[in-house]
Amino acid sequence: VARNPGEVEFHQAVREVLESVEPALARHPEYAEAKIVERICEPERQIIFRVPWEDDRGVVHINRGFRVEFNSALGPYKGGLRFHPSVYLGIVKFLGFEQIFKNALTGMPIGGGKGGSDFDPKGRSDREVMRFCQSFMTELHRHIGETTDVPAGDIGVGGREIGFLFGQYRRITNRYDAGVLTGKGLAYGGAQVRREATGYGCVFFAQEMLRAAGDSLDGKRIVVSGSGNVAIYAIEKVQQLGGVAVACSDSSGYLLDEKGIDVELLKRIKEVERGRLGDYVQSRPHATFVAGGSVWEVPCDVAVPCATQNEISAEDAVTLVKGGCVLVVEGANMPTTPEAVRLFGEAGVRFAPGKAANAGGVAASALEMQQNASRDSWTFLQSEQKLQEIMSDIHARCYATAEEYGMPGNYVAGANIDGFRRVAEAMLAQGLI
Ligand code: NDP
Questions:
Q1: CATH fold for domain 8-178
Q2: Which pLDDT tens digit goes with each residue over 276-300?
Q3: Where in the chain is the domain with CATH 3.40.50.10860?
Q4: The ligand 1 atom nearest the CA atom of 157
Q5: Which residue among 82, 93, 155, 224 has the greatest number of ligand 1 atoms within 8 angstroms of its CB, and so is best to mutate?
Q6: Alpha-carbon distance 401 to 410, whole Å?
Q7: How far is ligand 1, taken at its centre, from the CA of residue 155, in Å?
Q8: What superfamily does domain 195-352 belong to in CATH?
Q9: Residues of each domain in the chain carrying CATH 3.40.50.720
Q10: What is the per-residue pLDDT across 211-233, written as a single tens digit (0 to 9) for each?
Q11: Atom of ligand 1 nearest to the CA of 249
Q12: Which atom belonging to ligand 1 lies closest to the Cα atom of 362?
């Protein structure tokens, strides 16, 4: 804490991992000898830079850019870029730290990193977003590469932003290194199912958890938070698998549609018109938008938080349990506060941590890297099948590790221990670096 003052989200993420890997540390004294914990908590490299840009009125703005290259024991740094006014070093480090173990859990050769900026794309024109992305990449390009560091999207960074970033990378370097960024458009090196992967993967994970308990998604009432990339495709997959997603949200309130959210309408509003969630009720008057309300007030069987960190407080957890919730699957990174996680445990609510449940996004990014490297492109069906297999493997690994350590059903322990062990073994093998 003294070494990283004020980085509260980073402290929270580190505490959560270290507490649950204690039994693994006890079994592996060689980790302590090689100071694996101390090394894993210190990023290999942290880059902070100035991002100057001009808005449509000619006003100059200065934002701050970040890239934290956290751990490359398993492969090139891999992790998204977040553009949101709340971004500062503590957020980027928490996300980068989580990313190390998430990427390890996928079983794919990718290390952990994360980046972003305190730039707020909301309300900005396409040209303003383009100028910002060009300025951001003008610095970032010297730090990334298909064998060093491969960024992708996150909050505020979707297909549009990745396109602008990739264009500027090509222009500066005069290289068509498709594998330098993932989440690209299908027309220029993107991969099928990358856009859908985090949301779909999360629902595949929920399906595996329910199956392990002799249950299924069929007829389940689902509440999702957020209405961005992860939320939209989680809702789509829920409906395809027989569940009913009745509510979702954004930072201004939540939408309730008892007939089930019309996902095509939601996509049109959010992806095409870049409108607000409240616009939905104009086309579906039976639905309601509750301005300023918390989506966790809506009773459900399954909750899928897909917005941002610490969005489920202890109070929300109590409300969810009272509303009949029996399963929580994190689509976002660290959306559940530690207190809420504890309350879910006490109430017997099954809980999947983001680093396992939302790993589908980065796994599909690794598949995009594979396709770029071999100049190949797979079909939607092939790619979705591969994603489903990966999610099923991650589930099996978390499940088995929790059993191995005498904590059956504890997916937090299973995910943290398995991810940590993989990275620790690679670090040990590679010596003191
Ligand atoms: P988007 O920018 O597409 O959507 C984010 C959604 O969350 C929006 O509806 C937004 O509402 C809401 N939101 C964001 N910040 C806040 C906040 N502070 N308070 C309330 N609502 C908020 O992002 P993604 O869907 O890509 O990411 C969502 C989460 O999933 C993040 O935690 C991200 O780290 C995680 N994730 C994403 C992956 C991906 O592949 N995209 C992969 C793995 C994890 P509004 O528009 O009003 O701001």
A1: Rossmann fold (3.40.50)
A2: 999 999 999 999 999 999 999 999 9
A3: 8-178
A4: 2
A5: 155
A6: 9
A7: 4
A8: NAD(P)-binding Rossmann-like Domain (3.40.50.720)
A9: 195-352
A10: 999 999 999 999 999 999 999 99
A11: 9
A12: 42
Ligand 1, atom 32: closest residue by C-alpha: 332
Q: Which residues are catalytic?
A: 114
CA of 431 to the centre of ligand 1 (A): 37
How many CB atoms sit inside 10 A of residue 260's CB? Answer: 15
238 CA to centre of ligand 1 in angstroms = 18
Asked if this assembly's ipTM is beyond 0.90, the reply is yes
- The whole-angstrom separation of Cα 28 and Cα 8 is 29
User: Which is it for the CA torsion 69, 106, 330, 226, positive or negative?
Assistant: positive
Token pair recorded at residue 181: 């960024």
Q: Give residues with Cβ within 8 angstroms of 431, minimum separation 6.
A: none
pTM: 0.97
d(CA 100, CA 93): 11
Q: Determine the distance separating the centroid of ligand 1 and the alpha carbon of 127, expressed in angstroms.
A: 22
